[in-house]
Amino acid sequence: MNASLRPLLPPGPYLLCDDTVRPDMPLVAKAERLLAGGARVVQLRMKRTPVREALEVARQVVQLCRRAGAVCLLNDRVDLALLSDAHGVHVGDEDVPPEAARSLLGPGRLVGVTVRGVEGAIAAREAGADYVGVGPVFGTTTKQVPAPVLGVEGLARVVKGSPLPVVGIGGVGLDNMPWVAATGVHGAAVVSDALLAQDIAERVRLLASAFEQGRVGG
Ligand SMILES: Cc1ncc(COP(=O)(O)OP(=O)(O)O)c(N)n1
Ligand SMILES: Cc1nc(C(=O)O)sc1CCOP(=O)(O)O
Ligand SMILES: [Mg+2]
User: Could you say which protein family the record assigns here (predicted)?
Assistant: First the structure.
């Protein structure tokens, strides 16, 4: 497959379907609610799910996303992405390096890479990545991140210098979404603000309209 046939990463809210936040709710139920709210990108992040169960969940969530016309990315696991026919992966410093992910996935799938600044974004492009995840934008309790908080100004600097589309992550939610979108980010990744909401689907709808409200030129 030619790289031009690779799926595009839809702009806007980028929702994580995560097993560490609200662990009492099954991942497939979370994915259904995210998609019911119109999620166009879902990253399946499984840190606690045993691998055989994770493969089964990945197959179900990928199928749900494909039916809904959404892009599904697997966090960390290139093997599960291939076995579930996901649209791609998101990898960071503790995962398979981006060059290896690209070589295993080929040109037809997306590779996202976590970076902390413009230099990292340049290296990610050279490694064959399609987009970069940049954070933490704000403080977060979802994960202990070994990097300082960027704030919206720091995020805007990375957006300006990055050769790849930027997805901001870390503490992003309804209250700050317009400011995050106003930096010119391609996407805004959200974990707890969506998954902890009483009505997850409605929260996703609100996040999308808040992104549109803040979007550069929007
Ligand atoms: C969109 C996005 N950006 C950054 C991350 C963090 O990935 P990583 O550094 O590999 O950390 P874990 O998520 O694996 O804990 C992400 N998942 N998504
Ligand atoms: C998984 C992850 N990675 C981050 C990074 O900065 O690399 S912040 C983060 C967690 C984001 O969760 P929430 O939306 O609940 O703050
Ligand atoms: Mg990772």
Answer: Belongs to the thiamine-phosphate synthase family.
